[in-house]
Amino acid sequence: MFLSWLKRRRRRRLLAQPFPDQRAEILGHNVFHYGHLSKSEQAKLRDDLRILVAEKNWEGCGGLVMTDEIKVTIAAQAALLLVGFEDEYFDMVQSILVYPDAYVAPDQTITKGGVVLDGDSHREGEAWYRGPVILSWADALAGGRHEADGDNLVLHEFAHQLDMQNGRSADGTPPLATRQQHDRWQEVITAEFHRLERDCRHGRRTLLDCYGTENMSEFFAVSTECFFEQPTDMLQHHPQLYDILRDFYRQDPAQRMDSPGQGSAT
Questions:
Q1: Beta strand spans in the chain (E)
Q2: Hey, is 112 helix, strand or coil?
Q3: The domain that contains 74 carries what CATH number?
Q4: Do the domain assignments include residue 29?
Q5: pLDDT category, 69, cuts 50, 70, 90?
Q6: Backbone angles phi, psi at 21, to 5 degrees
Q7: Is residue 264 part of a domain?
Q8: What is the domain range of residue 173?
């Protein structure tokens, strides 16, 4: 109780300070979605990103020197997922590790015959249960600026963290408010996952990235990217999937895209 009180007190003090002009400029230059939020949503995102910047351990890896621009750009994208939530700050994430670009990590593959193959893999990001989020700065910046053709690394990895908040490893089902919402989620997400599997298997063009067929966890993360990056197309081609994500995130990005620039870049 005492620790919770101290945390709330620190947050109140932090948010009582004016939002720095330099950080507002970073949002304007590096976070495409910020300009499409309403003024109240922008204020919520600014508050949330300040808490994420202050409370997480930010570490540059592979020679990267950590800067406020890197922290704000990444935290703002993560905070976009939280606009519809109250008192949610990815508490299970203690550290955010950032490499200059894609990095090499040890990997292990088990063949169908049960043979374990050790090697290395090139990665842009990772999200660990009760562990760090690891990101490539080049890819995080490209996603923030909407330069990545519908991909957004930060949204993808932090969607995994929301997925894992149900107290177990990522399984494609984040914590849901009601049994009815859970049943509807399972019905839609399963049908859409198998639809993507069929389309990718037959080489059909898909809106959702075929990486989503890896498992249900990746499908949720890929769907989250699409929901925020290409909401109008998702609403048209995957209306039921859009529906359950709109209910979960408590946001309607397709409506925002129909009314661009509704907020100020401050």
A1: 57-60, 95-99, 103-110, 116-123, 125-127, 133-136
A2: coil
A3: 3.40.390.10
A4: yes
A5: very high
A6: -60, -40
A7: no
A8: 23-258
Per-residue model confidence as pLDDT tens digits over 36-60:
999 999 999 999 999 999 999 999 9
Residue whose structure tokens are 């399963």? 190
Alpha-helical (H) ranges within 203-250 are 216-229, 231-237, 239-249
Q: How many CB atoms lie within 10 A of CB 127?
A: 23
Q: What is the pLDDT of residue 180?
A: 95
Least Cα distance to 59 among 20, 98, 1 occurs for 98
Q: Is residue 7 part of a domain?
A: no
Distances (CA, A) of 37 to 1, 33, 55, 78, 258: 35, 7, 24, 14, 11
- Taking CA atoms, 211 is separated from 133, 159, 186, in Å, by 19, 15, 20
Domain count, the chain: 1
Residue type for position 150: G
Note the residue count of the chain. Answer: 266
* DSSP SS3 for 107: strand
Q: Cβ contacts of residue 95 below 8 Å, gap of 6+?
A: 56, 57, 58, 59, 131, 132, 133
Which pLDDT band holds residue 3 (cuts at 50, 70, 90)?
A: low
CA atoms within a 13 Å half-sphere pointing along the CA-CB vector of 46: 27
User: Of all helices (H) and strands (E), which one includes residue 73?
Assistant: helix 68-80
